[in-house]
Specification:
globular, Ribosomal Protein L30, Chain: A, 28% helix, 2 domains, alpha+beta, five-stranded mixed β-sheet
């Protein structure tokens, strides 16, 4: 992934999935930023989504960089996020039994396949054909695409400065995994 912020170019490791966490509220936001946060499904503070590195998403992240933080998520952190904060429609928790029903042995196996790019999306559409590979459904039906997190234990440093300036906003690379674990 390559993200440009001003004259600075940030290169990252070859991860293909990005976790985005909203850290700031709606006060003093422009309608364009509100719309972009809504498109990313970041409607409240301390909400997390996992997206891929498409250019459209990277442009959206550049637009909302003063409200969110993001970085590459690893399989272990994604598995913990799915296990502790994954919710199905009806606010039911995501369990290994639900994942086994669709051909995966555990949440960890599904998370690893998603991070490696074998699975294209986390959640399936409610109707229609679901993508399959052998006996596995390549998504989890009825999974909500956002995760509600707690404020981080130990607090945040500064939600008005970028990560490189000693704050919490903007691109943070693989350090996003530590923040997610503090917010579970």
């Amino acid at each position: 992934m390559q993200v440009q912020e001003g004259a600075q170019t940030i290169r990252s490791s070859p991860y293909s999935r990005i976790a985005v966490i909203r850290l700031r509220g709606l006060a003093d936001t422009s309608p364009d930023v509100e719309r972009t946060l809504d498109l990313l499904r970041l409607r409240r503070r301390y909400t997390c989504v996992v997206i891929d590195e498409r250019p459209a998403y990277l442009g959206m992240l550049r637009m909302v960089k003063d409200w969110v933080t993001w970085g590459e998520i690893d399989a272990d952190t994604l598995a913990e996020l799915l296990r502790k904060r994954g919710r199905l429609v009806g606010d039911k928790p995501l369990t290994d039994e639900w994942v086994r029903k669709y051909g995966w042995s555990s949440i960890e196996e599904f998370a690893l396949a998603y991070v490696l790019g074998e699975v294209e999306r986390l959640s399936c559409p409610e109707t229609g054909q679901w993508p399959r590979s052998g006996n596995k459904v390549l998504c989890i039906p009825k999974l909500k695409l956002f995760f509600r997190l707690h404020p981080p234990s130990g607090g945040l440093r500064n939600i008005k400065k970028g990560f490189n300036e000693g704050g919490d906003l903007g691109y943070r690379g693989i350090a996003i995994n530590e923040l997610i674990l503090k917010m579970l």
